[in-house]
Amino acid sequence: MVRRGRRVGRSRLVVHVLRPDQARDLGPHHTGEALPEAEAKTAPTRNSDVTTRVGFVVSKAVGTAVVRHRVTRRLRHLMRDLLPALPAGTLVVVRALPPAAGASSRELGADLDVVLRKLRVLSPDVPATGSR
Length: 132
Known about the structure:
Blueprint: E1 6-9, E2 13-18, H1 20-23, H2 28-31, E3 53-58, H3 65-82, E4 91-96, H4 105-118
Helix pairs in contact: 3-4
């Protein structure tokens, strides 16, 4: 996913995005679709609706476990508010960089807004996350 999509970075984070039309070539594992019965070892547990999925990468370079979990919680909360505004089936990976450890939620939200707008997955009429 990270190699095939587009990415934009800021000083505190890098966001990788794979739009639904780009994810079709990767197969059902990456698009959120249920596996066909022939490929599945067990019956699929989720429906075949294509969902938007978000993952977070916060390495040890960001800080101790407490700091990394705090950064992850902040990013998860900010992305939860943005999920309805993203196109269905979009795959997003948010990679936190070491300066994210000292950033406030407002600063991280502003960075996410700028990056997602540059990637053209967030429409301009969606209110800014950092201003909430």
